[in-house]
Amino acid sequence: MQRGGAVTEHARAASMRDVAALAGVSHQTVSRVINGHVNIRESTRQRVRDAMAQLHYRPNRAARALVTARSRTIGVLSTSAAALYGPVSSINAIQDAGRAAGYYVAVSQLADLSGDSIAAGLDHLLAQSVEGIVVIAPQEVVIEQLETAALDVPYVTLQGGPSTVQRELTVDQVAGARAAVRHLVSLGHRRIAHISGPLEWFEAQARVHGYRAELAAAGLEPEPAAEGDWTAESGYRTGLRVLRDPGVTTVFTSNDQMALGLYHAAHELGRSIPGDVSVVGFDDIPEAAHFWPPLTTVLQDFTDLGRRSVESLVSEIEGGLEPKAVSLLPDLIVRASTAPRA
User: Fold this and answer.
1) Do residues 258 and 291 touch, judged by C-beta distance below 8 A?
2) How far is CA 299 from the centre of its chain?
3) Are 242 and 225 in contact (CB under 8 A)?
4) Distance between CA atoms of 12 and 72, rounded to whole angstroms?
5) For 20-50, how does the pLDDT look when each residue is reduced to its tens digit (9 = 90+)?
6) Is 98 helix (H, G, I), strand (E, B) or coil?
């Protein structure tokens, strides 16, 4: 391109030899760092990485795969509900942990829960030669498809599933629900309603089970079933119905977004929180502390789940270590949306 009679050229992209020269090592050493060889001094590895960053060097993925016969790619199969806080947080953590371990992350989002869609999602990932798959699709039909797919790469599932799944990393949903209900019982509440998530989700099923189990332990009866769809709108619509009964003094919602909708319904019906009705959510989304009043909720660490899923896959890919089912205990975060029964 000409400017004022002079010819300027686009800057040449940095090469592996440029990185080697800047780092003061051989280009073979740069190659070993890129391909994750363990017999490299950490100081040398860091020097090479610093040089790559300074030169904005990006390894050629296709050439690297040809040389190593490995794609160093992890796939993520996610439901169409991937915009929810939990899946988004886990996917972000998987991408961060994948990069730290030297892996690319490819995401395939299911259009729906049909067998054809699930098979297509898996095929999309396998066509990219993924070396392992993280499944963030906690519905029975997805687990069934995985069990019959005869995958030739390792996989782990996140966020709930049946106890028979040995490749599951999850937060103990039953324990979280029981902690929420136990807190409400300890405040003297006796009529505790529950707005569940969609019951084709394992997590929603588990939270209903925990709700009912803790009520039974306290000698209390569950309120009539009320099912939402994880959205604030469903919490609002369902909340209008549940809160019209003045005897209901507290509601445990299966996620924080539905709790937000319930706040709207309570305000519209003239019922104050927590004066007339206490509310407990689930997830502890970042906004939960800024609801008014701040929301009591169950914290599950999605970031830790995502990190552990990558660690598990990398251990199996590189060390042949089969993953084991892991269930993490959640924490109850008590804020101002719950109070003793008036």
Assistant:
1) no
2) 13
3) no
4) 27
5) 899 999 877 887 777 666 678 888 888 988 9
6) helix
For tokens 């690319």, the residue is: 104
Dihedrals φ, ψ of 69, to 5°? 60, 25
**What span, in angstroms and rounded, lies between the C-alpha atoms of 130 and 104?**
9
How many CB atoms within 10 Å of residue 285? Answer: 23
Question: Which pairs count as long-range contacts for 156-163, CB under 8 Å and 24+ apart, including other chains?
Answer: 156/132, 156/309, 156/312, 156/313, 156/323, 158/90, 158/134, 158/305, 158/306, 158/309, 159/86, 159/87, 159/90, 159/202, 159/203, 159/302, 159/305, 160/201, 160/202, 160/203, 160/206, 161/202, 162/202, 163/325
Determine contact, residues 23/33, Cβ cutoff 8 Å.
Answer: no
pLDDT digits (tens, 9 = 90+) for 324-335: 778 899 999 999
**Do you know the residue count of the chain?**
342
| Partners of 170 in beta bridges | 327
Look-up of token digits 């054809």 = 116
Q: What is the pTM of this model?
A: 0.77
Would you state the structure tokens that stand for residue 63, as one six-digit string? 């050439």
